[in-house]
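Deliverable D4.2, example record:
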Amino acid sequence: MADHLPSRRIDRAALEKIIQRATELQAGEMDTGESMTEAELLKLGSDVGIDGRYLRQALYEQGSGPSPETGFLVRWFGPQRVGAGRVVPGSKADIEAALAHWMTEGEALTVKRRMPDRVTWEKQKGFMAEMKRGFGVGGKNYHLARALDITVVVTQLEQGFCHVELSADISQQRQGAVGASIGSGAVMLLIGGGTLALTTLTVVPLAVVASLGFVLVAAAGAAPVVAGRVQRTRAGQMQLALEQVLDRLEHGEIKPRHAALPPSPFFGVAEEIRKAITGSIEASRNQRRLPPSR
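Output generated by the structure prediction step:
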């Protein structure tokens, strides 16, 4: 049959459709019904010449990420959780060690919970961590530290490759945006409505008072729009921050051996400041404890 096929070039779009259709035909012959197991999927891929590693990668990418959210709030204010996943080269142990170092030193996070299949991280607390984030050490924005927590899941696919999934809980940010929009909108609506109601009792020209009232009422309606746009921007920034961690991991920019690098001179200065403040407070306390001289 192949001898009678015309010799012609097949472009990328047509190639994808042909492979997809061939896979459907092969699946139909296997009579898999409405679903199939992972083993059946791998066998199907082998039958049509697709490497098992790529099938496993596609399988984990399809199932990774936060569950899709629906409803008014997600359309207006964005999701409560954002995530990113990717297959990266390396062993599970090395990738977990690299991520642990990066989350601690590069994102100012600390372990919140360590479970068999995942690790959750939260914002570091304390003077040094606040100084690090406040001064933007390393030119970073430390977006991940603004999340309620960050979840890391590393799954070994085969020798030398792992699927890494990162997700950030930003529900507190969204709740704050919703509350701020409702509160500010209600206050401006109340003031604007009261201003319009007093137009007949004021000595100020009616047009001025009415204009002020309409402006406040319009601002009350715009408050949720502005708050929603700001929160969606924050969600996008968090999503980008997760993708950037995966970019660094994929290109080998973060590794366990980085933990051996000497600390930044900034931390020495910050430590001296902390010691000076602590020493001053302690000296003041000791002076108050001394008995009065006779």
